Please model this.
Amino acid sequence: MAGPTHRTEEAALWRRWRSAAGPGSPVEPDPLLLAAYAEDRLGPAEVDLVEEWLAAHPAAIADVQAARRAAAAALPDSPATVVARATALLRHGNAQVLAFRRPVPRWRKAAVWGSMAASLVLASVVGFNLGADVYGNFAAATSVSLSQELLDPPGGLLNGADEDSAI
Model:
């Protein structure tokens, strides 16, 4: 009678079959663990966990096999001109990795700075006019509109009462 030649492999297969046939299903491994399994980069304990899950989910085996075929496929060769230009960059010894920034058009910079300057001027004029003779502006009942009150209050900058017209 011929006995089994690989007892440990048969025992592991038996354990996987029993765990798949049991009431609880194995926990789904994360995609990075499945990718490492497809590339044969796992240890024996992790391989057992992944194979246990694959035994319970045979539809995922096709994905693993496709990943193995893609990893085994040879990459196309790069054009010689691209390789020559890339190696020419590294010959100088002071190679640096540069972050490429999108160039900002000049009109956009001008619009940003112009809008900031306009908002500062407007806030300054309105703030100055509101602060000048506050009690007189808000306590007096006048029929002047609010926009005229903010931009040119009666005691403000553009009031002509102080001017001497005789000169």
Remarks:
- The chain has a mean pLDDT of 75.
- The longest helix spans residues 106-131.
